[in-house]
Each structure stands twice: as structure tokens, then as C-alpha cells.
Hints:
By secondary structure, the protein is an alpha/beta fold. The chain has a single domain (3-119), classed as DNA polymerase III subunit chi (Rossmann fold, 3-Layer(aba) Sandwich), CATH 3.40.50. 24% of the residues lie in helices and 22% in strands. The protein has two helices and seven strands; from the N terminus they run βαββββαββ. The chain has helices spanning 10-22, 85-100; strands at residues 3-6, 32-33, 44-47, 58-61, 75-78, 107-110, 116-119. Strands 2-3-1-4-5 form a five-stranded parallel β-sheet. The two termini are 26 Å apart.
Amino acid sequence: MRAVIVTGSEERAEALNQWLWTWDSAAFLPHGNRNDGRPEDQPIWLTANIENPNNAQVLVLTDGVCANPLEAFTLVCDLFDGNDGAAVAAARNRWRACKIAGHQLTYWQQSAQGGWAQKL
């Protein structure tokens, strides 16, 4: 599935872009951002804007970014730092708004061992 990853700033999108190029050559994820161009050819598009230029099915929101409407995507992921009280409070507000809007929601939490568990 194609994805759009929305960050809080263009600088953050570019930093993530560079990190993905250099992180692990054996685990490359094809991606790009506005500096790379050709969004229609990018399976993962990194941006600071709510947009879908690569016809993505997955929207990943970071840095407390909010998006509406969400119906254009099959899956929306809201990533936040569970150790940051302000980030958790803001995520709870986004959760409530999505629940009121009638979206089907699940919550996953990273364990101390690095895995993920669905929380009820």
C-alpha cells in the first residue's frame, strides 16, 4: 500500500527523508518528498501538508498533525510519543474527535521490548 507521511514541518519531512536514505541499506523503503519530485512515482510521500499526490491508501500523521477528512484513506495512523504528557493529552483529544466522527479506532502501544500490542 502507498503511504503519505505528514510531519509538522518541511524541515522535519526533509530530515526524515534523509534518515530513510541512510538508515539501513538492507532495509530500503522507496520514498520521496517535494525536493525529490514525481510524487506519483513515490510509494511513500513525506510532506508537511495534508495532501495525497501519490494516491496513497495509508495516511501517517506525526508531530501532532491533524487531518480532515480522513475518508480518502483506508488506514490512518496517528503516531505520538507516549512518554510526553502533552503529546498524549493531544492524542486523546484527536481520538475523541475521531470517535465522535464515527471512525473505527484501534490503539497500539509499543512495549518495553520494542514490540507492539493492541490495547482495549
